[in-house]
Automatic annotation (TrEMBL):
Family affiliation: Belongs to the GatB/GatE family. GatB subfamily.
GO terms of molecular function: ATP binding; glutaminyl-tRNA synthase (glutamine-hydrolyzing) activity
Protein name: Glutamyl-tRNA(Gln) amidotransferase subunit B, mitochondrial
Gene3D superfamilies: 1.10.10.410
Gene that this polypeptide is encoded by: gta2
Length: 512
C-alpha cells in the first residue's frame, strides 16, 4: 500500500465582516457599496481630536460569533493597538485584541453527513474583534494606489484555527461550515466574493518517519518545515487550489533538498500557482500597547446568556431537526439545503406559507411540503444558476414560490408548467399573483379528456411508423407518444390522463 511521506498542515486566519450597519468606533455607516470615500467619519481617517465610541451592536454580534464557534467568552472586552505603517491605516496602528481575545479555545464540528468529510473537530485558538483597514485599489501604474475609506474602521471578527487541517478537501469543508455557521447565527454574510469573509491560509509540511520496529505500526511525524502564508484568496475554490499547489511545491523542494524561508505568498488563479510576496522569516514587532481611549467593557454571564438565548439554531442542530419527524428530509437534501446560502431561511419561510394556505386540502399541503426541498434545491437553484443569479434564493419571492408548489401538488398546473413558471419569475420578476400569471400566460393544466384525446389522436395519426413498432412490441415508445402530446400542449397536459387515452387508442388499433 502507498504510504505518504509528508504530512501537510493547514491553519486559517479568517476575517469576517460583521452584519452591522455602523463602523466599530465612529458611528459612520459601513459604505462598502457606496461611492468611494462618502461614508467616512473623522475618526476613520484619524483626524486629531476624534475619539472612539464602541458600537454595541458589533460587540453583540461578535459575542454571538464567539459562542457559535464554541469558544469561552472573555470576562472583559478590551482593545490593544497593533502598530504598523501602511497607507490604508492612517493612525499607524490597528485597534485589535492582543492580550485578551474576546473568545478562545473553541471548535468547529465537521461531520460525515452534513459536511461530507470524516467526523472532525477543528480547534479554534482565538476569536477577536478588530478594525478593518481602508480598501487599497491598485491603479494602472504600479506606483499609484487609490484608497477608499468607506471600509476603514468597519468591525471584523478574526478567527484563528490551530494548524490541524491536513488536506485541502477538509479545509474547504471547514470554510463552508464557518460560512454556514456565521450566516445562520446572523453574524456575517461571510461572502468571499464581496470581501465579507477573507482568509489567510498557512501551509507547512513535515516528514512522516516510518516506524523502525516491526511490532509498532505507528509512524512519527518529524519537525515541520517553514510555513508559508497565502493571501488574497477570493473564493473557496481558490483556497483549495492554492493549498494543493503549495503543498506540492513544498514537497518537491524538500525532495530536492532545497530550503525555503517563512514567507507570505499570493495566488494567481489564472495559472493556478502561488508566488512570493514578501519575506516573513523575521517576525514583525507590532509594538502592541493597550488602547486607553476605549474603556474596557465587562462581559457578564447574564449578558452572555441573553445573547446565547437569542441566537437561532445553528446548522448542526438544524440538520438533526430536518432529518427527523415531521420534516423527515433525506440526508442529502438536508445537507444541500443547509449548505445553500440562506437555504434554510428560504425553505422555512416557504414552508410556513404553505402550511398556512387556507384554500388547500391537507393532502395538497402535505404533498407540497414533502416536495418542497426538491423544488428548491433542484428546480429553483437550477434556474438561478442557469441565469447566473447565484446564491440568492429570495430572488423569487417565497409567497410566489409557495403558490407554484401548491398549484402543482393540487394538479392545477403540470410539473413542466411549474418549472416554466419558476423560469418566468427568474427571467421577468413580477409581483403578479401566480393565479393571474397562469391565466395571462395561458398555462392552466389540461385534464379535460376530450381536449386531450383530440391531441392524442393527432399524434398517433402523424406517427404511423412508431405506432407499428409499438404494436409489434416496442413498449418504450409509449413515453415517446406522451412526450409528443405534451410538446403539442406546451407541457400543460395531464400526463396520467394522456397515458390512459394513449393506451386506450393503441389497444383499439391492435384489436382492429
Ligand atoms: N506549522 C504550521 N503550519 C501551518 N500553519 C501554521 C503552523 N503554525 C501556525 N500556523 C497557523 O498560522 C496562523 C498564525 O496566525 P497568527 O495571526 O497568530 O500569526 P501571524 O500570521 O504570524 O501574525 P500576523 O498575521 O498577525 O502577522 C494560524 O492560523 C496557525 O494555525
Ligand atoms: Mg497571519
Ligand atoms: Mg493575525
Amino acid at each position: 500500500m502507498y504510504k505518504p511521506k509528508w504530512l501537510a498542515s493547514v491553519g486559517f486566519e479568517i476575517h469576517l465582516q460583521l452584519a452591522t450597519r455602523k463602523k466599530l468606533f465612529s458611528g459612520a455607516k459601513i459604505g462598502v457599496f457606496e461611492a468611494p470615500n462618502t461614508s467616512v467619519a473623522p475618526f476613520d481617517v484619524s483626524l486629531p481630536g476624534s475619539m472612539p465610541i464602541l458600537n454595541r451592536e458589533a460587540l453583540n454580534l461578535a459575542v454571538r460569533g464567539v459562542l457559535a464557534l464554541n469558544c469561552k467568552v472573555a470576562p472583559v472586552c478590551q482593545f490593544d493597538r497593533k502598530h504598523y505603517f501602511y497607507p490604508d491605516l492612517p493612525a499607524g496602528y490597528q485597534i485589535t485584541q492582543q492580550d485578551v481575545p474576546l473568545g478562545k479555545d473553541g471548535f468547529v464540528k465537521l461531520s460525515k453527513h452534513l459536511d461530507d468529510v470524516d467526523d472532525t473537530l477543528v480547534p479554534i485558538q482565538h476569536v477577536q474583534l478588530e478594525q478593518d483597514t481602508a480598501k487599497s485599489i491598485h491603479a494602472d501604474s504600479v506606483s499609484k494606489i487609490l484608497l477608499d475609506f468607506n471600509r476603514a474602521g468597519s468591525p471584523l471578527l478574526e478567527v484563528v484555527t490551530a494548524p490541524c487541517l491536513h488536506d485541502e478537501v477538509t479545509a474547504s469543508s471547514f470554510l463552508r461550515k464557518i460560512q454556514s455557521i456565521m450566516r445562520h447565527a446572523r453574524v456575517s454574510d461571510a461572502k468571499m466574493e464581496t470581501g465579507g469573509m477573507r482568509c489567510d491560509v498557512n501551509v507547512s509540511i513535515a516528514p512522516i518517519i516510518p516506524s523502525s520496529s516491526e511490532s509498532s505500526k505507528a509512524s512519527k511525524v518529524g519537525l515541520e518545515l517553514p510555513r508559508t502564508e497565502l493571501k488574497n484568496l477570493s473564493s473557496v475554490r481558490n483556497v483549495v487550489n492554492a493549498i494543493r499547489y503549495e503543498v506540492q511545491r513544498q514537497i518537491s523542494l524538500a525532495e530536492k533538498n532545497e530550503t525555503w524561508t517563512t514567507e507570505t505568498r499570493g495566488f494567481d488563479d489564472k495559472n493556478g500557482k502561488t508566488f512570493a510576496l514578501r519575506d516573513k522569516s523575521i517576525s514583525e514587532d507590532y509594538l502592541y500597547m493597550p488602547e486607553t481611549d476605549i474603556p474596557p467593557v465587562t462581559i457578564s454571564k447574564k449578558y452572555v446568556n441573553e445573547i446565547s438565548d437569542a441566537t437561532g439554531p445553528l446548522p448542526d442542530d438544524l440538520f438533526v431537526m430536518l432529518t427527523s419527524e415531521p420534516y423527515s428530509m433525506p440526508i442529502r437534501d438536508a445537507r444541500i439545503l443547509l449548505n445553500l446560502p440562506y437555504g434554510y431561511d428560504y425553505y422555512s419561510t416557504v414552508r410556513d406559507i404553505i402550511s398556512r394556505q387556507d384554500g388547500q386540502s391537507k393532502k395538497v399541503i402535505d404533498e407540497s411540503l414533502r416536495a418542497l426541498p426538491t423544488w428548491i434545491i433542484t428546480d429553483l437553484v437550477g434556474k438561478l444558476h442557469e441565469h447566473e443569479i447565484e446564491e440568492d434564493l429570495f430572488y423569487v419571492p417565497p409567497s410566489q414560490f409557495a403558490d407554484i408548489v401548491c398549484f402543482c401538488s393540487a394538479r392545477k398546473v403540470s410539473r413542466l408548467t411549474a418549472k416554466a413558471l419558476i423560469n418566468h419569475l427568474v427571467v421577468t420578476p413580477s409581483d403578479q399573483s401566480i393565479a393571474n400569471l397562469i391565466k395571462e400566460l395561458k398555462l392552466n393544466f389540461i385534464q379535460d379528456s376530450n381536449t386531450l384525446d383530440v391531441q392524442v389522436g393527432k399524434i398517433l395519426e402523424a406517427s404511423p411508423k412508431q405506432v407499428q413498432e409499438f404494436l409489434t412490441g416496442k413498449q418504450s415508445l409509449l413515453k415517446y407518444f406522451i412526450g409528443q402530446v405534451m410538446r403539442q400542449l406546451r407541457g400543460r397536459g395531464d400526463p396520467v390522463e394522456i397515458e390512459k387515452l394513449l393506451k386506450q387508442r393503441l389497444s383499439e388499433t391492435l384489436k382492429k
